[in-house]
Amino acid sequence: MTTLREHLSHKRTALMARRVAPASGPVPLHAHVTAEGRSGIRRIRIRDHQLIRDSGPDVAGCDLGPASPELQAGVLGSCVTHIFLIKAAELEVPLDALEVDVRAEYDPRAQQPGESGVPVHPLRSRSAHAPARPWPAPAGPRARR
After folding, report:
1. What average pLDDT does this structure show over 68-96?
2. pTM value?
3. SS3 for 70-137, per residue?
4. Which of 15, 24, 84, 125 could pair with 104 in a Cys bridge, judged by C-beta atoms 3.0 to 4.6 Å apart?
5. At residue 128, what are phi and psi to the nearest 5 degrees?
6. What is the mean pLDDT of the chain?
7. Which run of H or of E encompasses 15?
C-alpha cells in the first residue's frame, strides 16, 4: 500500500468480511510491563510490539519516553483517528491524510497524600480533527462524499 486511500480500500474489504463472520466472543488482551535499570523506565510489551514509558526529571525519570497521562492522550487520539478511518472506509470517503490533535491536562496533586478529590486521569481532554483536503460538496440529496 502506498496511500491512505489504498489503505481505506483494504480496510473496507476487511470490515465487510468481519461483518459476514463476526468474532465469536471476547478477544483476550495482554500487556507485560517491566521496570528496568537505573532509570526505572517501563518497557511495555504487547504482542510483538514494544513501547518505552518514562517519567520526567521531576519524579526521578530520564524523560526517555512519554509519561502515562501522555500515553492516555495518545491512545485517545489513536482511537478517534481509527474511528474516522473505519467510517471513511465504510462510507467510501476518499482521504489522503487525517490528523487528530488531542490536548488534556494532568494534575500532579492527584498523587499527593490528602488529595483524594483530584482525579489521576487526564482532565479536560479536547481534540481537533482535520482531513487532508476539504470534502467535496454533495451533488444531490443522496450523493456520496
Report:
1. 92
2. 0.75
3. HHHHHHHHHHHHHHHHHHHHHHCCCCCCEEEEEEEECCHHHHCCCCCCCCCCCEEEEEEEEECCCCCC
4. 125
5. -130, 140
6. 83
7. helix 4-20
